[in-house]
Amino acid sequence: MIVARDVVKSFGDNLVLDQVSLTLEKGEVVAVIGPSGSGKSTFLRCLIHLETIDRGSIDIAGNSLARQHIDGSSEYPPEPEIRRICGRMGMVFQSFNLFPHMTVLQNIIEAPLTVKKVPRDVIIPKAEALLGKVGLLAKRDNYPTRLSGGQKQRVAIARALAMEPDIMLFDEPTSALDPELTGEVLRTMRQLAEERMTMLVVTHEMGFAREAAHRVIFMDQGRIVEQGPAAQFFHAPQHERSRAFLGQML
Ligand SMILES: Nc1ncnc2c1ncn2[C@@H]1O[C@H](COP(=O)(O)OP(=O)(O)OP(=O)(O)O)[C@@H](O)[C@H]1O
Ligand SMILES: [Mg+2]
Predict the structure, then answer these.
(1) Where is the ABC transporter domain (predicted)?
(2) Ligand 1: distance of its center to the CA of 52 in Å?
(3) Which of 101, 123, 129, 190 is the S-S candidate for 118 at Cβ 3.0 to 4.6 Å?
(4) What spacing in Å lies between the alpha carbon of 71 and ligand 2's midpoint?
């Protein structure tokens, strides 16, 4: 579903992604872990075109989002094509980013109505089903300010799912939450994983990475230092830096 090859990205003279390559298979759940500033968020943001890459290539579900030009630089297709390709992905951020002036239901139906032109009578039952799935149907007509952080994040997940993405990207979806609210969001994500959603998850939750992810990618200083099956990575990390990181986290 995702093939990224030798992605290079700098902010000014700060090299943030240094030849990062990744493949994500359909139905696979991959956790991206690593210290602060290692480039995890930037990598996700590049995959969904919230940032552009300098070099390398990115394919999403068989479509070329960025291809490497003969001179090494990356080139992008026209904007409508980019939007079509990135429309196959949903993203959930640390700070839920709900629309504060809209109810929970309105938050979920807004993009399907306006971007995908899904009829109201089709999207409303679907939104309600999604709310049921994340356990928040009773909050249908509430405004986000009336919700807990965990509830807001579950609405954000339902909102992303309402666009029927093939791939879900999560950037530390639980790190703004109190520990007692983290569990309910992780449960929703585990359920998605069990339904074979293709997921790329940046997380500090080592328990989630170990139990729910098929594969773990460890990034440090803009590079993938190590990747492997979750069980293997946590049981016997191969690199000194991975071991040091896990030592701190566990
Ligand atoms: N918009 C930006 N402009 C300039 N520099 C940026 C920008 N976004 C990120 N950076 C820099 O890129 C580097 C990687 O940041 P990034 O947010 O990708 O790290 P991260 O691994 O997600 O860290 P964290 O675990 O703290 O979220 C950092 O040095 C950061 O300062
Ligand atoms: Mg980050």
Answers:
(1) 2-246
(2) 14
(3) 123
(4) 30
The CA 43 to ligand 2 mean position distance, Å, reads 9
pLDDT digits (tens, 9 = 90+) for 10-30: 999 999 999 999 999 999 999
Choosing from 41, 172, 248 the residue with most ligand 1 atoms within 8 A of its CB, the one to mutate for a pocket test is: 41
pLDDT at 180: 85
pLDDT (tens digit per residue) in 125-166: 999 999 999 999 999 999 999 999 999 999 999 999 999 999
Tokens of 183: 């569990």
Q: Give the tens place of pLDDT for each residue, 54-97.
A: 999 999 999 999 999 999 899 999 999 999 999 999 999 998 89
What amino acid occupies position 16?
A: V
Spatial neighbors of 67 by CB under 8 A, at least 6 apart, are 57, 74, 75
> What is the C-alpha to C-alpha distance for residues 31 and 250, in angstroms, rounded to an integer?
16
Indicate whether residue 39 lines ligand 1 (CB < 6 A). Answer: yes
Class of residue 19 by CB neighbours under 10 A (exposed 0-12, middle 13-18, buried 19+): middle
